[in-house]
Amino acid sequence: MNPLADQLWHRLTGIMPGELKQAELGWLATPLRHQMLLARRRATLIVNRVRLFAFLFALLTPMWSIVDFVVFPFPLWINLALMRFAACAAFASLLVYYRPSGNLFDAYRAMAILFAIPSVFYVASRSLLGSYHLTGLSAAIGAGYAFLPFVLLAGLSIFPLTLLESAVVASPILLAQLLAGYINWAALDWPSFAGAFWLLMLITAVSALAGMSQLAFMIALVRQAIRDPLTGTFSRRSGEELIDLQFTIAKRNNLPLAIAFLDIDHFKDINDSFGHEAGDKVLADVTAFVGKNLRRGDTLVRWGGEEFLLVMTNTDRSQAEAAVARLRAAGFGTRPDKMPLTASIGIAERSVDQAADWKSLVDLADQRMYRAKQGGRDRVVSCDAPAVP
């Protein structure tokens, strides 16, 4: 790492101590490299907060019509009231019909709808108010409509967004402010408008920083929740969620999906002869050795005890056999007595084994792993043929 990047990293970790690993710093800027499970959890949280926002707007938007009725002339009031109730209906529909799916693009769509509704209302109301000559209290209340973009941009702070996402969401609101200024060009107070727009930019920056801070905490919490504390691999619970998702994607697109079930041979003897601390070290060493030789896109899951699952997306049986052969050739590390570690491995593949669901696929790989053990250990079973030593 160059000195400038190192200095920047230490300053950032001083601001957010213990939250992010260095490799995760780029995740605050763009969502392109986010892990799938993080993306699913973040999508669910975003949609739930969209629905909360929609609930508040659906409740408060029509209530302000009471104030409008008191201060505005009737023709202006009735037009604003119709616009308010149309916005209320849109917010209510978003609340009722939108549910979390774990899909990030669905979350983006929900946010787009949420912020589009008040943005359209803002431009339309400012255009309508600009056609009336208001004075006194009615002018003061009318001026209050100009604060809607400030509320929207401040609301960005409740979402765990990357810097890129915050910029994309904020841009239409800022453009709506410019459009409203253009519509009222003749009567526009330029110094006041420029000051307000600068304040909007400042609020956008603060909201983006707040969203990135939320995202940093979320990354750290999700990492702790989905990782096995001993080995650093995916835990069984997160592994089940991951396999379920990958199986659904593979089935929908008719793609292969392979599972290798690994069981460390004679692991109980290691615990009995050398103690559980030595056994824990062996497990950590195994995951380190396997991790170094995984292909890009492969995922290792600690299934329980000395059992691991290797999830290989877009991989058919022959490719899975080749990948496992490379792992075995590289080795799994050594026992405390310096003897090489071995593993019994069962392989199952979605298409060729016609698995109905992910559980059936894992069960089949598990059964073949047991056949490998019964066949003498330190071998691979990938079909109904005899075990391969």
TrEMBL record:
Residues 255-385 form the GGDEF domain. It holds the Pfam family GGDEF. Its EC number is 2.7.7.65. The chain crosses the membrane at residues 50-71, 77-98, 110-129, 135-156, 163-185, 197-222. One of its GO terms (cellular component) is plasma membrane. GO terms for biological process: cell adhesion involved in single-species biofilm formation; negative regulation of bacterial-type flagellum-dependent cell motility. It catalyses: 2 GTP = 3',3'-c-di-GMP + 2 diphosphate. Keywords: Membrane, Transmembrane, Transmembrane helix. It comes from the Bacteria. Signal peptide: none annotated. SUPFAM superfamilies: Nucleotide cyclase. CDD domains: GGDEF (cd01949). One of its GO terms (molecular function) is diguanylate cyclase activity. This is diguanylate cyclase. It comes from Noviherbaspirillum autotrophicum. The lineage of its organism: Bacteria, Pseudomonadati, Pseudomonadota, Betaproteobacteria, Burkholderiales.
